[in-house]
C-alpha cells in the first residue's frame, strides 16, 4: 500500500497549485483502508491518460486574457454547473470521482465556488468550498489554494444559460501548464456547442486530444443549493 500512499501524497502536492476543490477531497481519500487495492487498480487504469495530460504543457508563455463576453455578469453566472469535459491532467488525480458539479454562490459580498463530487471509493458525496477573488477584468477570478498561493482562472466563453468554458494557465519560467473545463447547466451539452468550445481551446494551446469526458451518471446526486 506504500505505492498508493505515494500517489496520494504526490497528488496532494500537485493539487495545492491547481483547481481549487480536490485538495480537500484528497484528505478524505487518505483515510481509506479497505478499498486501497481497488483504488490502486483504478489509478493504474487512469494512468493510461498520462500522454494526454502531458499535452497541457507548453514551451511558450501563457496566452493573453481576452475580454469577457459583452453580457457577462457574476450575478447571471451564479448557480450550478456540471463538468462536461476536463483536461486529462486531472484524470489520475480524480480517480474514483464522478458527477463533478460547481456551484457559484454569493454570500454577503463574497462569491464562492462550492464543489461536489460523488466518490465511488467512499460511496458518498464529498463537498468543498473556496472563496473567489474577482479581478478587475471581471471574467478572471483567483482562488487561494494555500496561504501563499492563488491560482487564476479565466472564463473564456459562456452564454450564462447553457455552457461555460474555463481556462487556467500557470507560468513556469518561459513555459506554461494549461488546463480547461467545459461546463454545462445540464449534465450533457449539445455537440455543436462542445465543438465550438473545443475549437476555442485549440486557439489557447489545448488540443482536443487532451480532453477527457466527465462521468455524470448519478441518478441520486444532490448538488449544492443555489
Provide an overview of this structure.
The protein is of the alpha+beta class. It has a single domain, classed as Beta Barrel (Lipocalin). Helices cover 26% and strands 37% of the residues. The chain contains seven helices and ten strands. The protein has an eight-stranded antiparallel beta barrel with strand order 2-3-4-5-6-7-8-9. Helix 1 packs antiparallel against helix 2. It is globular, with a radius of gyration of 17 Å. The model is unreliable at 1-18, 32-37 and 43-55 (pLDDT under 50).
Offer a concise description of the structure.
This protein has 226 residues and is of the alpha+beta class. Helix content is 26%, strand content 37%.
Descriptive labels:
globular, 10 strands, 8-stranded antiparallel barrel, 26% helix, 226 residues, alpha+beta, 7 helices, Lipocalin
